[in-house]
Amino acid sequence: MNQTASLQPAIRVVMMPRDTNSMGTIFGGIILSHIDVAGAVEARRHSEKRLVTVAMHEVKFIAPVFVGDLVSFYTETVKIGTTSVTVRVTVDAKRSQPPRETMRVTQAEVVYVAVDEPGRPVPL
């Protein structure tokens, strides 16, 4: 099994046919979008200010995701700065087809920065 087995995911999503690319697997941009949302859920634990995504580091697509897979996005804060929060997002997919195994499919680190109304960085 994997290290996320005892954790609760920030979000879970069942992948749908509308999420596919031309190869019939789930489009990477869909996964990135969910990574951003899951990471923001974690970052919001550290600040009630407006947070914006400024970077995605070391995104690794490890295995494809398929229609019907239940995809879980696990988060962990790895760094808190004066104006920023860095979150690691680990993505596991429970396959919809037998043997219905769960496997790691993607991982990334996302940096969020607290900003004021005009978009300037402010302390968390």
Topology:
Elements lengths: L10 E4 L13 H16 L6 E12 L8 E11 L3 E11 L7 E14 L9
Short description:
The chain has 124 residues and is mainly beta.
Oligomer category:
single chain
Biggest sheet record: 5 strands, antiparallel
Integer average pLDDT: 95
Number of domains: 1
Please give the CATH class.
Answer: Alpha Beta
Within the largest sheet, what's the order of strands?
1-3-4-5-2
Radius of gyration: 15 Å
CATH homologous superfamily grouping: Hotdog Thioesterase
Could you name the CATH topology? Thiol Ester Dehydrase, Chain A
Q: Which stretches are poorly predicted, pLDDT < 50 over at least 5 residues?
A: none
Look at the helices and sheets and give the structural class. Answer: mainly beta
Characterize the structure shown.
This protein is mainly beta and 124 residues long. The protein has a single domain (11-115), classed as Thiol Ester Dehydrase, Chain A (Roll), CATH 3.10.129.10. The protein contains one helix and five strands, in the order βαββββ. It has one helix at 28-43, and strands spanning 11-14, 50-61, 70-80, 84-94, 102-115. 27% of the residues are buried.
